[in-house]
Amino acid sequence: MRENQTTETTVRLNKFLSEAGLCSRREADRLIESGKVTVDGKRAEMGMRVSPSQRVCVGKKEVRQKNEMVLLAVNKPVGIVCTEEKKEKNNIIRFLNYPTRVTYIGRLDKDSEGLLLMTNNGDIINKMMRAGNQHEKEYKVTVNKPVTKEFIEKMAEGVPILDTVTRKCKVEMLGKYKFRIILTQGLNRQIRRMCEYLGYKVTRLERIRVMNITLGELKPGEYRKVTEAEIQKLYELIKDSSNETVIPKKQEQ
Prior knowledge:
Elements: E1 11-12, H1 13-19, H2 25-33, E2 37-39, E3 42-43, E4 49-50, E5 56-58, E6 61-63, E7 71-76, H3 92-96, E8 103-105, E9 113-119, H4 122-129, E10 137-143, H5 149-157, E11 160-161, E12 164-165, E13 170-173, E14 178-183, H6 190-197, E15 202-210, E16 213-214, E17 223-225, H7 228-238
Helix pairs in contact: 1-2
């Protein structure tokens, strides 16, 4: 005979709000302290715990508990395609084969490699990748001929591609054929097009950072769960970001 479950699992209210994808725990504490959070119609108190059956609201909006957020840092190898199209045998979903349904946050093209973030949280995807929010993405790039000071300066100032001029960005020489670039936008094949305009061809393109999350020592094909500390820092970075515009399908490098 199954024993009746008379107790519910409870979590701290700030953790509940954070895991619902609303904000960081620190921001949740500020919301609670300001009186904007209610539990079952009553003003919430700092440090209180809530159960799944209770009604939590921020202002007039009810906050519902989601499935546990998954956020993965993946080192995408060359040849793997950022698509959910099942006809593509090398699609990233099949390659990763993760037990929970996740999708990618921003693309890396088939010939590019490095850090790809994958999650089951759609809200965080738009906040991170919408160009207007200007979040940083960092790359190491190898080209087919020696990098010059003039090349670095022109890349940093902005290059005319796709009927626009790219935003000013940080560019640093790493070696005879290598440089580092930090972008705050994600035009289609942006780095490759910028290099082509200046007479260079990219031979290797590796993303090493998205905002505060880095590739680290992950080998091609490996992945790790993003740490709780990284997630909380990420929430701090995107707390004022818009999520109203769904990210375009064709963007990134």
